[in-house]
Amino acid sequence: MASSSAGFVAGLTAAALATIGFLAHQASVAAPHDPGRARVSGPPAPGASKAPRDRGHPEALPAGTGRGERVVYSVDDDRVWLVGADGRVQRTFEVTPSTVDPAPGTYAVTSRSNRVTGSDGIPVEHVVRFASVDGVVIGFSAAVDGSMPEPDPDERTGGIRETRADGDAMWRFATIGQRVVVIR
Fold first, then answer.
1. Which residues form the signal peptide (predicted)?
2. How do 70-74 and 179-183 pair as beta strands?
3. pTM above 0.90, yes or no
4. What's the rounded Cα separation, in Å, for the pair 137 and 129?
């Protein structure tokens, strides 16, 4: 009798986990969305469009990118900062930008995929999506082969490429709902 009870509880646990996973996926894709406009989770961070920089220290977090835990992405500097709840930079790294840039503002991570084929046809991993611009989905990813080639300027792509190590760090940090602050 004890083994059948344990099997019953294990079955219920598996069903509960499957339901939670399904509901989490539904929540990530159910929000209304205008495909011609980037999804913004709130007003831009103060100074998000023209954050002051310490040009002598490009790894320094620009001022005016908000408070609390967030990803900060500079489209002009091709750099990302992962900022903890205490406001300290946990990691910063350079990226290879896509051909379509999101507008400055505050976004939220809307979906993630462990492994897919990128819009440029390259297998990628740890995809973290946060915006859509004129039908092009924007997100961070790392090429499985470790490459970071410049994108074809004639192709409209949204993949912001990271190294595999930086992609692993982004994957652990930027879960669904995480704020992403885009600055110039």
1. 1-18
2. parallel
3. no
4. 7
Q: pLDDT tens-digit profile of 32-42?
A: 333 333 344 44
Q: Looking at the structure, do residues 19 and 103 belong to the same domain, yes or no?
A: no
Give which of 177, 22, 35, 34 is closest to 110, Cα–Cα: 177
Please tell me the distance from the alpha carbon of residue 38 to that of residue 100, in angstroms, as a whole number: 11
Work out the pLDDT band at 119, boundaries 50, 70, 90: confident
Alpha-helical regions (H) of the chain: 2-30, 164-173
> Can you tell me the distance from the alpha carbon of 171 to that of 17, in angstroms, rounded to the nearest whole number?
21
Q: Tell me the CA distances in angstroms from 59 to 30, 33, 77, 117, 153, one per residue in order.
A: 36, 34, 10, 30, 27
Residues 11 and 65 in one domain: no
Q: How far apart are CA 64 and CA 33, in angstroms?
A: 27
pLDDT at 183 over 60: yes
110 in the same domain as 25: no
Q: Which domain holds residue 23?
A: 1-30
More confident residue, 142 or 118: 142
